[in-house]
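Readers outside the structure-tokenisation community will struggle with the description of the input data as it stands. Showing the layout once, in full, would remove most of the difficulty. For illustration, here is how one protein appears when written out as sequence plus structure tokens:
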Amino acid sequence: SVQSICDDGGSAWRGPLTVVPGVFTFGTTGSSSITACDLIVYDNGGPNGDYSNSCDYTLTIYPSDPDSVVSVSGTFAGESTWDYLEIYDGTTTNDVLLEHIISGTGSSGTVVNFGPITSETGPLTLRFYSDGSNQYAGFAATISCVEAPDCRTPYGLTANNIAADEATITWTAD
């Protein structure tokens, strides 16, 4: 059971809370973040159920070791072309999209293997979306942390002061 401690005392006790080490289950909508390695992540149907209609949930996973980056692999089975899992390199869905995973055109429910997909920057953000009809098994993703690369790929390239024989190029590598 848990209780909030406030200036004027404590809240009511709530619980019990069941926690399974190393497992995270998506909600239907919203977002969360977690710092972890060696984790299994499921859609909101969990390991044995189908996901719900109208899901739109985002999870950012930070490596628990500061010298590591997050890597993900797993399986996905969803409604063809309508329901998907996206994986971004970074902390938001505005960062670089590494993978857009669907079950394939005309093959709803077909299990697709993905990964490993590895961050260049450290964290990965997973977004799961389902429309308003047809539910399937969804996804199970294994999260691990791997050694950060010595030479990271530049991203966010910008060219300024462009002339016939020169330009100023800026980028981000971390």
About this structure: The chain has a mean pLDDT of 86.
